[in-house]
């Protein structure tokens, strides 16, 4: 468990003590009661903390103009379930009136990961954007752009570089390599870009590991002479744990990770080897009941596979009361995952047709 | 005298031991005999050293495609005589077939000096570009651009950031503040921009204090997988010394500096207080002769006021032989400077009309 260090290591893979981190950085617990029809991730504590949530809730309830923004790092040809949660959270705000921006961080991919701008563009068009649409983003109501096409973002990134010292970068990130600095100032410019023509509130849902960017953005805004930008709100999502329970889902533990797309068989194979909250023997489990809150299969239900709260609660109860065993439960998760993966593929196919009409922002 | 430190301090104001610096950084002495009709600054050792001069001379003599590039830092409303020398050197290459690029470093001015992009644009259009044209640049044969308008430059700057480590920035510049890093990688992108559509040699004339940028550019090119860019040649100009002889001309010693534009009276007043190579008394000077090579007035003749080599040599001889005294000589410098300043104002006026037709590059 982590939470003691002075900075959140953006590259760390351990599970976090979320409450401790939230307290340390002064992030409030998320209050789902403030939000209309809270999403599955909101209701179940996956969205676990927030900055500026009161202003955000007010913007929604009063129908004020506000925006939601997220980015695509086009370095691969699949995404993991943690990304899915961020995208679904963006979709929630889009459904609740947010002017939605999705940027492709092609400059960062080029500088930090050696992916050419051309290749990044290809991956964004052929995979990431269709995947985001398949996960609920409405492409007709979303502003998409590539960093490399956006002069305003690049100009502002340069300007913002004068608002942060090298030591601050180091304190926030643990290092201050030049491409890291470029990425950080560009990310600030991305986050504030929707305010370029109009000063307004925004919401940025992120994994807790991305809070350094958010804090830096807040600091930069506060250092500007005239407060040209509204400090955006941010929501923090818990990581999707690795199926072995040892860390967050990440490429370094491929057996613990389910990616999109995946073959249903492969996903099932991984689910069947997942860490559960089962007891040493069937007898003991029937007697003492299982521990769903330590179970990675239950985590899959909770975060991804079961929409209905009563259905989820029913599984938890059955497990706790020793009325359902792990094998059976895994089989159920497999079936649900298969249905999801097949549906995802189908939606991806439909989305690829839709996105041909996207009019990318260029400045 | 400087020249011992491990890096050339870009902000230093002491006079340099040019030979020592050239040796230390492996820069060859400038060989004017390689170049057709060498300019006043080339003939007189103001252009004192170079990298890649053989390739450059060959490009000129064989009529190959090559480019010359310099930048404008639009932070003021006047330039000093050192800038004049760089501009005149660009004009020399333009007259000798160079495809000429002049960029306005408006992003750097904004991040490092707090000049807004709008203000930078205004200054460039109303002062710097007309001044450069007045000093010999042919606007019809020059590609002008603003950094903030040039996506290619910004994209490449981001990419190049991955080719330099923080420690290298620190070694080269003495510090590695974020806007400094942004400026450095953007400058590399500017220097290489004319090769974007066509790989070709270029020449960058700079004050010796700018060599760090040049070396970094060379390093970045050498680190790229496929050698996409030709390493540009560079010429190094000596500083114009302050009129008090104590340092290079700079804003921190206003009485030692002649700026363009200046009122002729003010310029004369400063010339009359300049350090000369005169002796303690007229009698002694008549007997032993003056020391023109220690004289700031002679430096003005040499670098700026007298085009004809024989005329300059005649003054040196008269001075050395004690046939001309400092008062008389200063009066002559005043007259020449007045004529130059009046001519400059006239040319500026004409240039302002011409530049309305400039078609700035936008990418």
Q: How would you sum up this structure, described in words?
A:
The structure is a homodimer of 363-residue chains. The first copy, chain A, has 363 residues and is an alpha/beta fold. The N terminus of chain A is likely disordered. Helix content of chain A is 48%, strand content 11%. In chain A, helix 7 packs across helix 9. Chain A has two domains: 222 residues, HUPs (Rossmann fold); 95 residues, Tyrosyl-Transfer RNA Synthetase (Orthogonal Bundle), CATH 1.10.240. Chain A is globular. The termini of chain A are far apart. Chain A is built from 15 helices and nine strands. A seven-stranded mixed β-sheet of chain A has the order 1-2-8-7-3-5-6, sandwiched between helices.
Brief write-up:
The structure is a homodimer of 363-residue chains. Chain A has helices at residues 18-24, 40-43, 53-61, 81-95, 106-113, 117-134, 151-160, 166-173, 178-192, 211-223, 264-272, 282-288, 296-305, 309-320, 326-354; strands at residues 28-29, 47-51, 66-72, 79-80, 99-104, 142-146, 201-207, 233-237, 259-260.
Keywords:
Tyrosyl-Transfer RNA Synthetase, homodimer, globular, 15 helices, 2 domains, Rossmann fold
Write the layout of secondary structure elements.
Two copies of one chain form a homodimer.
Chain A lengths: L17 H7 L3 E2 L10 H4 L3 E5 L1 H9 L4 E7 L6 E2 H15 L3 E6 L1 H8 L3 H18 L7 E5 L4 H10 L5 H8 L4 H15 L8 E7 L3 H13 L9 E5 L21 E2 L3 H9 L9 H7 L7 H10 L3 H12 L5 H29 L9
Parallel strand pairs in A: 3-5, 3-7, 5-6, 7-8
Antiparallel strand pairs in A: 1-2, 2-8, 4-9
Helix pairs in contact in A: 5-9, 6-15, 7-9, 9-10, 11-15, 13-15
